[in-house]
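Fold this sequence, please.
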Amino acid sequence: MHAGPVRAAPMHRSERGKCSVTLKQDMKVYYETFPESLKYCDWCGKSFRTVAGLRNHAVKMHAAEMDAAREEALNHRVVLGSPMDAWNDVATDYPEE
C-alpha cells in the first residue's frame, strides 16, 4: 500500500532561523578550509563565493576599469590583426631544418 510522497514536517520560525545560522557557519568553515574556491576581484581583491557575485561587483564598482581593459584588448587585437598572424609570427621564430 502506497501512502504517497513523504513530506518533511513543517519547521517553525525559530527552527528555520536556526538552520540558516548553522548553514552560514558551515559555509564559513567551508570557505576557510577551501579558500581556492573563492573568486577574487582583480581590481580590489575582494572575495566572492560565486562568479555571479563577482560579476555584479565588477559591473557596479569597476565600470571604468572594465571599459579601459576592454579598450586595451580591442587595441591589442587591432595591432595583431587576425589571430593567425600571431601564430605565424611564432612559427617563423624557429629556423627550418
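The two ends are 81 Å apart (CA to CA). The helical segments are 13-33, 51-61, 63-80, 83-91.
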